[in-house]
Amino acid sequence: MSEEKKLFKVTIDNITVDVEPGTTILNAARMIGGDVTPPAMCYYSKLKNSGGKCRTCLVEVAAGSTADPRPMPKLVASCRTTVMDGMIVKNITSDRVLDARAGITEFLLLNHPLDCPICDQAGECHLQDLSYEHGKEGTRFEFQKRIFKKHDLGEYIQLHMTRCILCYRCVFVADQLTEKRVHGVLDRGDHAEIATYISKSLDNDFIGNVIDVCPVGALTDKTFRFKNRVWFTKPVDAHRNCSKCCGEVQLWMRGDEVFRVTARKDEWGEVKDASDGRPGWICNECRFDKKDIKDWTIDGPSKINRHSVISQGHYVGVKKPTDFLPEVMGGRGPKLLMDIHKVSEVNRPEIELSKIEGPAHSDDFKGSK
Amino acid sequence: MIQFSEQKLAKVQEIIARYPQGKQKSALIPVLHLAQEEYGWLSAETMDYVASLLQIEPIEVYEVATFYSMFNLKPVGKFLFEVCQTGPCMISGSDDIVDYIKQRLGISVGETTPDGMFTLKTVECLGACGYAPMMQLGKHYKEHLTKERVDTIIEECRKNAGVLN
Amino acid sequence: MGVKLLLEKAHVEGIRHYDVYRREGGYRAVEKALKTMSPDAITEEVKKSGLRGRGGAGFPAGMKWSFLAKPEGVPRHLVCNADESEPGTFKDRYLMEFLPHLLIEGLIIASYALGSNATYIYIRGEYAWIPDILERAIAEAKANGWLGKNILGTGFDCEIYVQRGAGAYICGEETALIESLEGKRGNPRIKPPFPAVKGVWDRPTVVNNVETLAAVGPIINIGGEEYAKIGVGRSTGTKLISACGNINKPGVYEIDMTISVEEFIYSDEYCGGIKNGKKLKACIPGGSSVPILPANLLLKTAKGDTRLMNYESLADGGFATGSSMGSGGFIVLDEDQCVVKHTYTLARFYRHESCGQCSPCREGTGWMEKILKNIEMGKGKMSDIDLLWDIQRKIEGNTICPLGDAAAWPVAAAIRHFRDEFEWHINNPQECLTRNYGLAHYADPIHVPTTA
């Protein structure tokens, strides 16, 4: 019994949880889950030194600990503040927190384009979620938004700096997952930007993970961009034997077509550990080059939070209409008089709609047969 | 080709020796100053050279060089006028001085004269508030600026231009 | 004439050089400290003196020293913060330019007390000629046995290095300074851990302002208790004030924190009154980030007491009717100055100097600057004033480092005390381009309600 570690009791929004010493308030809140968990735009539990910058996870510490129950004068970043035994934290039960968080949301959106309908991240954007939850409907900012020049990061990754909220996660990915970092944060203040300074492509084996950690649409997958909206695609878990990474991924499919490959994410939107306990980061080959369903072994549909817009396309709970014809026809199936696929000029499965520039036209289907 | 002289390289080693073993990155800002003294500005090539001297990645140099306002990432004129315009200088008439320099040199803030002689920049507080209005010119401060004093400074620069070559 | 401890010898010809400095009694404090006192006894003496950090925050220096972690086998460092960049402040520059040995003396004693064998002076890059002065003084001190190996036969080794910054106000924040010293961008660190535990190169570190360290020598000479007798209350010793703006005699003055603000501005010993016979309109008494006060609240507190030049009196009334000693940058505005424009230049300054790491400061400072520019240029709306108030309120306290607060306070104070000037700008968009609002009633006596 003596080997058992002493746990700290921490109360967040009136819910008490026992956590190991050294746990941050945010991670304690994640153990409770639900609304009690502060939003985190820059913190990423899998990346060392991340967090503290976006300030969306600010919470009020109403009592520091049992030993010293004084409240902390300022709101603290829950992702970088460790709990003390007997600490009392207020998140959504604190008006100060909600007020500050609304302010932070406004600051983050100040120079962020409000064009979600044409952004590839829409539907899985953490800033979008944050603004739905904590943002105001109008904007008080009446000036030109900051824009950046397009910057080329090579054949796989698109950087759209105008959308960046400077969470630094992609910098940590390059630092911690690759042996050589070629991109970083340049300039300072409101002109700070993610860039390589002189055009360089990011081509390390694991650099594709910057796409998965980016909370907004600043870093996107060039092999997927504008091919489809994420909520029209169906995420399925799949794996393959990969010599470089864990090979456990999520395929974003439509029909039999693999539109996109990403790492598997947990309920906080972070890359999940693989089944053997290794970090779940995936390599570029799995991410960008394996777009054929034959490359993968399907494990089954991914579990998606029902609140997510992506759950619009999920498989779980779908009611299949019952085929009643055989029943009323005494067990005999309907007789197929004509297979439309065989005679139609229009419905041609070998033509890949996504490869057609602009809207599809009947001309696109003519002549090749 | 960017290459420090033997003397400069010795200076770099002397600077690196100020820090604990393996912490040679600490020498970055001093070495960038040395490079800028030598070449007037920091080109990507210069920064890559500094990275190789300190055995760090080029991006680590770019990140730092773009953060600090004193590093010129584009070529500047031989004489860089950096006029302070923050509160205390403003209430002491820095706006008039900036206007006068613009008129005298025929350039706007951020521009260089066609002969490559002068560049005018406005900067934030240089810590000479009691001696305002003022500007930085190279290594030194020119304080208590008046129109007459600006004239004298410009004349002196023109005279020194030959000597500095 | 008040007591002078730092600038006592400032006007002695050649005091910049070792021989003169030594002849005038220099390095006595080092001798006394290293030969007769233990490191802990020195820290104790500094604690007794009540010396408060002169960089702006006013944290007791001795206490800061006593927090320094001392794990076995891990080197510790003292870093001197000479990144003086707060608008209105130029006192450290004066000390380093004219009395470099005074600073070095303090550095040696403090290094001994803290166990720092390699001490760094981080100086702002724009002070480009001062490192030469300091390095020369360091070489002189070393040649005379005050630095190097086995100083005065005590077994204590110490080297002092000068490191130049390259233009970043944020590096005055101690963790940003440490990052910069490590050759990185000046992004402040998220605390904890504090530098006393994990500072430069993850080693325990103390960062002190130039003036704080320069005061260590005099404290050792006269003793902590004697030092504490100078001044009033918790404002002990002497303080350098750098006075600038519309005054007859701008410059650096040493005060003993017992004189009144009025005396400081109008007496010939100090600022010598307002330039050109104009009237005093407003003043920022402690560097650009502390609240601006209109003349009436500057000279007297809201209670009607005479305001004194010390930590407590300047802060009397809190931010509602008081200000702060800050870094001692004393900016005086006469009746012709425009508070809106002045506030705009400060907002521009903070936007320019924000490191961009955390969102409230990165985005909020730029927003405030844009709105203030509009108001200054006659394009403001009445709702802009409340908007500014709301923005500063949402920056303050929510950022990683105090730069966010420093950017928020000047805007808040300008609106708090000069709201009618902002309104005038908005209501008179044409007129405000050609003339200023003037003195108005800002110097009128404040009605102090008397209680029976």
Automatic annotation (TrEMBL), chain A:
Task: Please list the residue ranges annotated as the 4Fe-4S His(Cys)3-ligated-type domain.
Answer: 96-135
Alphabetical keyword list: 4Fe-4S, Iron, Iron-sulfur, Metal-binding
InterPro entries reported for this sequence: 2Fe-2S_ferredoxin-like_sf, 2Fe-2S_ferredoxin-type, NADH_UbQ_OxRdtase_ferredoxin, NADH_UbQ_OxRdtase_Gsu_4Fe4S-bd, Prok_molybdopt-oxidoreductase
Residue ranges crossing the lipid bilayer per the database entry:
none
Enumerate the Gene3D superfamilies for this protein: 3.10.20.740, 3.30.70.20
Q: Which PANTHER family match?
A: NADH-QUINONE OXIDOREDUCTASE SUBUNIT G, RESPIRATORY NITRATE REDUCTASE
Q: What is the lineage of its organism?
A: Bacteria, Pseudomonadati, Bacteroidota, Chitinophagia, Chitinophagales
Q: What is this protein called?
A: NADH dehydrogenase
Q: One Pfam family for this entry, by name?
A: Fer4_Nqo3
Query: Where does the 2Fe-2S ferredoxin-type domain start and stop, copy by copy?
Result: 8-95
Record keywords: Flavoprotein included?
no
TrEMBL record, chain B:
- Give a yes or no for keyword Membrane in this entry: no
Query: Required co-factor?
Result: [2Fe-2S] cluster
Could you tell me the superkingdom of the organism this chain comes from? Bacteria
Assigned keywords, A-Z: 2Fe-2S, Iron, Iron-sulfur, Metal-binding
Q: What InterPro entries does the entry give?
A: NuoE-like (IPR002023), NuoE_dom (IPR042128), NuoE_N (IPR041921), Thioredoxin-like_sf (IPR036249)
SUPFAM superfamilies for this protein: Thioredoxin-like (SSF52833)
Pfam families assigned to the protein according to its UniProt record, in alphabetical order: 2Fe-2S_thioredx
* Family that this chain belongs to: Belongs to the complex I 24 kDa subunit family.
Can you name this protein? NADH-quinone oxidoreductase subunit E
TrEMBL record, chain C:
Q: Does the keyword Iron apply?
A: yes
Concerning InterPro entries, the annotation shows: NADH-UbQ_OxRdtase_51kDa_CS, NADH-UbQ_OxRdtase_suF, Nuo51_FMN-bd, Nuo51_FMN-bd_sf, Nuop51_4Fe4S-bd, Nuop51_4Fe4S-bd_sf
Pfam families, per this entry?
Complex1_51K, NADH_4Fe-4S
**Cofactor(s) recorded in Swiss-Prot or TrEMBL:** FMN; [4Fe-4S] cluster
Q: Which residues form the NADH-ubiquinone oxidoreductase 51kDa subunit iron-sulphur binding domain?
A: 340-385
Which keywords does this chain's UniProt record carry? Answer: 4Fe-4S, Flavoprotein, FMN, Iron, Iron-sulfur, Metal-binding, NAD, Quinone, Translocase
The EC number on file is 7.1.1.-
What sort of enzyme, by top EC class, is this?
Answer: translocase
Q: Which reaction does it catalyse?
A: a quinone + NADH + 5 H(+)(in) = a quinol + NAD(+) + 4 H(+)(out)
Report the superkingdom from the record.
Bacteria
Give a short account of what the protein does. NDH-1 shuttles electrons from NADH, via FMN and iron-sulfur (Fe-S) centers, to quinones in the respiratory chain.
Matches recorded under NCBIfam families: nuoF_fam, PRK13596.1
Q: Which family does it belong to?
A: Belongs to the complex I 51 kDa subunit family.
Q: What is this protein called?
A: NADH-quinone oxidoreductase subunit F
In its UniProt entry, the species of origin is given as Flavihumibacter stibioxidans
